[in-house]
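Standup notes, structure subgroup. Blocker cleared on the alpha-D-galactopyranose input:
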Amino acid sequence: MSGTGEDSTKRLGIKASGHPMDPRTQELVAHFQQAYGSAPERAVRAPGRVNLIGEHTDYNHGFCLPMAIERDVRIVLRRRPGRSVRVTSVQQPGVVEFSLDARPIPKATAKDQRWADYVKGCAQVLRDEAGIELVGCDLAVTGDVPLGSGLSSSAALEVATIHALLAAASVGMEGERIAQFGQRAENAYVGTNCGILDQLSSACGVLGQAMLMDCRTLQLTPAPLPAGVAVVIADTGKRRGLVDSAYNERRAQCEAGAKSLGVSHLRDVTLHGLRTAVASGKLPAAAARRCEHVIAENGRTQAAFACLRAGDAEALGQLMDQSHDDLRQKFEVTCAELDDMVAIARALPGCLGSRMTGAGFGGCTVSLVREPQVAAFVTALTAGYRAAHPAMTPAVYVTKAAAGAGTLAL
Ligand code: GLA
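Run returned:
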C-alpha cells in the first residue's frame, strides 16, 4: 500500500513522535538537504529577547528585566568527516566554509557573508577560550528575529551556534557559560562591546516568565507577568545606523563616570552619592546625566521586579514610562521614531506603559497593554505611526515569554 510508512511521514513533515513538524523547521530541513545532499541529525534553537526595563545597565553591573520571545534562530546540523564547518542560511545566499584549524579563523571578506562571522566567532571562542575539541559539521540556519531591531538577533545566532557546535562535539555546557562565550564571540571576534543581557536572556529564558537579571552575579530570578496584560513589541522600521560607535561611546562615558566616582562600576553608586560628587566638582554635569540614568534605572528595575511579584501592572507601566523618558533626556539614545512610537502607544486605551527596548537609536519599543484592548491597540499603533512616519514600515508583535535555548526534536 502506498502513502504509509517513513516516506509519507517525511513527505507530510510528520516527526517520528507523530506530531507535524513546524513549517519553519520543515523548510530548514529541506534547505539543509538541498545544500548538503543528506538529512540533518540534530536541531537546536535560541530565542531573541525583549527587555522590559533596565537599559544600558548590564555593562554597569546593574539590573535588567528581560524575557525571551517567541521568535528564534534555529540550526539543524550533521557531523562530517574532516576539520571544516560549512554553514548556510535560509535567509542568505551561498554556503560559507571555514577550517577549525585556522588560527585565527578568517573573517568574511564579502559583505553578504558577514552574518557567518557570528558562527566563526563562536567556533573560535569555544576552541581557544573554552578549550573544546570541536568537530567538523554542516549547519543550516534560519531565523525570524528581525535583524538590527534591538531584539537580539545576533545573540540568538551566537547562542544557537554554540548549542549546535557543542551538540556536534557531544559536549554539554550550562546556559550561563554559553551566554558568556556568546558575548565573548561578539566582543572579541565581531567587535561589538555589548554586555551580557542579550546572550543570557536567550540562553536562560524561562517559559512564561520575565527574569530579574543581576548582571554582576549573573543570577536570574523569574517572575510571571501580571495576569491580564500583554507585552507588545513595535518595530519602528528604523535600523540602528551608528549604533556601534554611539553604544561604545555611552559605555565609555559610564566607565569614565565610575572612575571619577571612585568605583569599578556604576552599580555601586547611589543617586545621593552622585549628587554629592557633582556638588563637589568631581564630575561634570554632562557626564553626571549619563550616570544618573544608569543609577536611577537600576532602582527602577528592582522596583519593577517588585511590581511583577505584587502583580501590579499599573506601577510597572509607570516605571517603563520613566525609563524611556530618562533614556531620551539623560542618556540620549532614543530618536524621533522611537519617541513617536512611544507617544502614540501611551495615548491609546489599555496602554499601561511604553518605552524603547535594547540599545536604542532605532529598533523597537515595548508596551504593556491590557489584554482586552490589545487588538485595537495594534491596529491604532500601526496606523498612527504610519501617519507620523510614512517612509517607515512598522511591524507590531504580541509575544509571550518563551523558553531559553535548547534542542528541538526532528
Ligand atoms: C544592547 C546590548 C546589551 C545592552 C543593551 C542596552 O542590546 O547588546 O548588552 O547593553 O543594548 O540595555
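Discussed briefly. Residues 6-216+403-407 form a domain with the Ribosomal Protein S5; domain 2 fold (CATH 3.30.230.10).
Next: hand off to the docking folks.
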